[in-house]
Amino acid sequence: MFRPFLVFSLVGSVLIGLVSSHSESGEWHCDSDAENRIEAEFKPGIITVDGHADDWSDVDGFEFSLLPALDPDFDHEYKAGKMTVKALHDGADVFFMLQVDGDYAYTKGESKKCPSVALMFQIGENASYHNMGGCPEGTDSCTNKTCRGHEVDIMHFSIGTAIPGRLYGGNPVDSKNGNGADSFGHLVDLYAWNPHCRYLDGPGPAGNDSSAQNNWKGAWWHSSLIVHSGFVEEDSPYASDGKKGTYYFEFSRPLRTMDLLQQDAQFTIGLTSKMAVAFWYPVDKKPWYGSQHYSVGCDWVPFDIVSSKALLSSLGSRSSWDAGSAFALLFSVISLCVSVFVGYWVVSRNKSVPFTPISNSNL
Ligand SMILES: *[C@@H]1O[C@H](CO)[C@@H](O)[C@H](O)[C@H]1NC(C)=O
Ligand SMILES: *[C@@H]1O[C@H](CO)[C@@H](O)[C@H](O)[C@H]1NC(C)=O
Ligand SMILES: *[C@@H]1O[C@H](CO)[C@@H](O)[C@H](O)[C@H]1NC(C)=O
């Protein structure tokens, strides 16, 4: 009786979820896949943020179709392949690896003729995936007061100025200026209330706050690149144009940051956040424009930061080991008591048997 009811209520809640996302707003149409999910397990000490994916081989990935973000229609899916997202945490930092097939495209200094990726996370409880937080105010009226609760956190990596395998993102120069810029590449830390009210961490419509930082680090790679001691800018474009292969984008960020302004998502071990992943590619060698990107879903994807405790209990090994060893201990105590008693009983019964010196026995 219980099971069918559970199944029905699950199906029911999935249907309700789909219906409510359908009616999100006007023309917006989203058939969000209720199974979509990204998990970051606790796996310390295996990842180096260098753009290479071999150290991720033992980490399960989550695979997503890439549909146009503004018109999530399967007819316009990114044709070269799906995106695999892997994540893990080491107790202090969270790590991401994004893998997507794509012919090698690289034009130095022109990020719109290179692939690009972004991650977006919910900060404010009322921030929607659709419209980057969904604050209804325009550019002249959005402020941290009028858009309170609609904050989203964004990391955007454009590789046109980034050497493959090198680390970009947070650095002392930009952190000294108190903002989320990246003067050495273009791996920036942003926040937004909607697509038109989008800023680097720190600056805002009411002035610049000097307490912000770029908390992200990241690197990129393509499988057609030849691994050697390291590239420099002169090696650009690093590999030959149009070579088949896979792009890799790897990132890390502390679970918690020193943000005071609701401009960074804060992650907690054992809790679920909401995230999205965007991908730009110069299809047919045509430069992309800002809103022309693919997305791994048409709504937030739940993002679990899994506690190592949850992993242990899900294996079920710990509790059964405890029960088994308790039983073994009890059993051995009982056998000890029984053997002591039997020994005592034998000795006391044989008390009357005279002691026979060994010399008297017939050897
Ligand atoms: C989110 O929206 C609800 C309902 O409109 C409102 O009660 C709540 O205060 C909002 N949260 C924030 C942080 O603004
Ligand atoms: C705020 O920062 C931006 C870029 O970080 C800069 O261009 C602008 O001049 C700054 N504004 C003020 C008022 O300091
Ligand atoms: C809004 O931003 C201004 C300028 O950065 C800051 O002084 C103020 O404390 C912020 N208010 C809230 C509610 O975050």
From TrEMBL:
The Cytochrome c-552/DMSO reductase-like haem-binding domain extends over 53-295
Which GO molecular function, any one, fits this protein according to its record? heme binding
- Can you tell me where the transmembrane regions are? 326-347
- Tell me any Pfam family this protein matches: EB_dh
**Where does the record locate the signal sequence feature?**
1-21
Q: Which UniProt keywords apply?
A: Electron transport, Heme, Iron, Membrane, Metal-binding, Signal, Transmembrane, Transmembrane helix, Transport
Does the keyword section mention Iron?
yes
Q: Does the keyword Transmembrane helix apply?
A: yes
Instruction: Report the PANTHER family cross-referenced here.
Output: HEME BINDING PROTEIN
Q: What is this protein called?
A: Cytochrome c-552/DMSO reductase-like, hem-binding domain
